[in-house]
Amino acid sequence: MAALAASLAALLSPAAALAAGDAAATAAAGAGAGSSNPLAGLLSFILHLDKHLAALIQQHGANSVYGLLFAIVFAETGLVLTPFLPGDSLLFAAGAFAGMGQLDVAILCAVFIVSAILGDAVNYAVGSKVGRAAVNRGLVSREHIAKTEKFYDKYGGKTVVLARFVPIVRTFAPFVAGIGSMPYGRFAAYNVGGALLWTFLFVGAGFFFGNLPFVRKNFTLVVLGIVAVSVVPVIYELWAARQEAAAEAAQGKGKGGEEGQSGGGGKPNFA
Fold it and tell me: Is 260's pLDDT higher than 50?
């Protein structure tokens, strides 16, 4: 993970320098700040994906960009410590560059599909081997695990597919599947199906709509819109979970027992 962060930081610095000539003054200032502050650099990369990807392609060539995109998607789906990396918006932006002919759409789809499948497979394996111990030792957010288990309780095994479209849950769904001992054959089918649907939908959207004049002039707003739409299910599930917890607490007080309290300690429902 340190190597990935180092390589990303190394790429962002020259990218910011190249983008400064074409970007507006505010975007250039934000990119310049990213070279000294990793968090600001990551935020600039997410909000100005179009400018950074253009600079990276010009500076390093398409093949290097394919490698970077593979690493980002693999880390975002395969490592429970990096759920903050871009997902949906990255696929959309890359699809837009494929629409301009700067990236090959077939290679791009293959990169995203393979990295998403491998990332989930690794995450599942880690969850099955050390997941429960990692949660018990506080190495992994209990809140994120509980949130993901809520999705499993509601949607069953289809969570592996649906989670592709939900930030944070996308990162923790395969990990929780491994903890809960979902049969790997079943998980693999959902994994492959979800990766195909996720890739074709967002890369296709970027390929066909990413170069419309309105989108190109307001790319940052489009990225924020994609992120906002993606987090709506998370906000709803958090609200629903609080409502359910309050109802269960009220029932528990009425019965004088603790059976109504949800501890999140059981295995998720994979039906």
Answer: no
First to last CA, the chain: 34
Distance in angstroms (rounded) separating the CA atoms of residues 83 and 162:
16
pLDDT digits 0-9 by tens, 114-135: 999 999 999 999 998 988 888 8
Mean pLDDT of the chain: 77
144-182 burial string, b = 16+ CB within 10 Å, else e? Answer: bbbbbbbbbbebbbbbbbbbbbbbbbbbbbbbbbbbbeb
Burial of 200 (0-12, 13-18, 19+ CB in 10 A): middle
Contact between residue 84 and residue 42 where contact means Cβ atoms under 8 Å apart: yes
Both tokens assigned to 114: 């393979």
Mean pLDDT score, 149-161: 81
Burial class (CB within 10 angstroms; exposed 0-12, middle 13-18, buried 19+) of 137: exposed
Which of 129, 127, 117, 133 is CA-nearest to residue 152?
127
- Residue indicated by tokens 């253009």: 54
Give the start-to-end residue ranges of the domains of the chain. 61-138+183-229
pLDDT (0 to 100) of residue 110:
97
Q: Is the confidence at residue 258, as pLDDT, over 60?
A: no
